[in-house]
Amino acid sequence: xxxxxxxxxxxxxxxxxxxxxxxxxxxxxxxxxxxxxxxxxxxxxxxxxxxxxxxxxxxxxxxxxxxxxxxxxxxxxxxxxxxxxxxxxxxxxxxxxxxxxxxxxxxxxxxxxxxxxxxxxxxxxxxxxxxx
Length: 132
Hints:
By secondary structure, this protein is mainly alpha-helical. It has one domain. It has helices at 2-14, 57-64, 70-75, 107-110, 114-128, and strands at 17-18, 27-29, 35-37, 44-45. The strands form two sheets. It has a two-stranded antiparallel ribbon with strand order 1-4. Strands 2-3 form a two-stranded antiparallel sheet.
């Protein structure tokens, strides 16, 4: 299953999309057992000069396939988690799955793909440790 999640993330990156909040809670499993990425609410479009995307449910289904449930897509377009704004940094996503670069001013712009790669590494480590 992790291989399929890696492949889905690579597909997004090839199309200039960084998910920015990969975590177990944002991975659904279809009726056929395939993982489906969801919650593109804080995803980034690298072709849009690092501006926050407003990914709609229809756009996410088109990008990731029609197996993404409509109700889940609509429910998973929440706003970013904002922590640490007093430090001059606005963190987006889930702290436990965010790379160190995300806490640096401008860090996400310097290493945009690191956000998803780090999250995948954390999830893989949790799988190997038997926590997932």
